[in-house]
Amino acid sequence: MTPYGAIYRRLRKDKHITLQNVEKTTGISNSLISRFEQGKNDITLSKLLPLLVAIHVSYNEFFFAYQYAQVSASPQPATAIQVALYRQNDVLGAAFTDFLGTNTSFSPDHYDLVADIVTQQTARFHQHPNHANLLALAFWRSEYRDLYCSYLTSHHRSLAELPPDNSTPILRHYLWNVDNWGIYEIEIFLLSATFFTPAENIQLLRTGIKKSQQLSFNPAFRNIQAKLLIDDFTILISHQGYAEANQVLTLIEQLPEADNLGTKVIAVFLRGWLEIASGDRRQGEQACRQSIAIFHRIGSQAQERIWTNRLTEILADPHHSLVLVDLNF
């Protein structure tokens, strides 16, 4: 049986986080953590939570990784592993979200509010210079730069006033180099996707789909990849990355969960949305209304209402930045 410490060590190394960084974040000595990882001692539940927070992993993901290790210990195909895990996990608790998991949205005129957050986060990082605070600071600096760029553009001012972009590369490097994507990495990507060019976005997205495959075996997150793709599609549309948005639609159609009727119907709507944004309003609206009609026929009133409202917004302003990102996994 694989000890919990070994699972923790693998997850920590997957994210390229050192024992010293965990110690800085938690105040727990790296020697104690090292003995836990080697199976030389157990650790209390009160210490486990901060240790998981330090490597951006939820209880749900941690204990799922433990079960995954047990089930996959003997050679068997991925489908058999998935079936076994579904039998073990009828209901799993919701994952917690990190500091970056915010539903607050800012308009360009609010760039000064974000500047205050950057100041606060800078102080927080200087006081506690750990991995999580570095990523949070990089996010808020990138958010400030993005909003200030929009503000300057809307007020016909020179972009020469923009500060250099030293933070987006930090987020991109982290997402590119971690060995596996969990909820934390998906949240960072979706929150940061507007900072990347469409070409960078699609490269990172393809990486994320590959690196989140194990997470998608978790019954609590079985639709996580479809959700990641659908949310990012809307981000690419808002940036007029139509070629990349079309690639996302192909990825959605290739997902195993694309057999799910709801995912298929949404894909039809997204195809129509792309056509409307690309200039073919008549054919695009027809496809969108076809998907809404299917939701009506199968009695999914909530989905019918949601996508009807979204179509109304799209038709009112095809180039409006309608970004649909929900971090409630």
From TrEMBL:
User: What's the domain of life for this entry?
Assistant: Bacteria
Gene3D superfamilies xref list: lambda repressor-like DNA-binding domains
Q: What start-end ranges are recorded for coiled-coil regions in this protein?
A: none
Q: Name one Pfam family in it.
A: Rgg_C
Listed InterPro entries: Cro/C1-type_HTH (IPR001387), HTH-type_regulator_Rgg (IPR053163), Lambda_DNA-bd_dom_sf (IPR010982), Transcription_activator_Rgg_C (IPR010057)
In this chain the HTH cro/C1-type domain maps to 9-62
A single GO molecular function term of this UniProt record: DNA binding
Write the protein's name: HTH cro/C1-type domain-containing protein
Organism of derivation:
Schleiferilactobacillus shenzhenensis LY-73
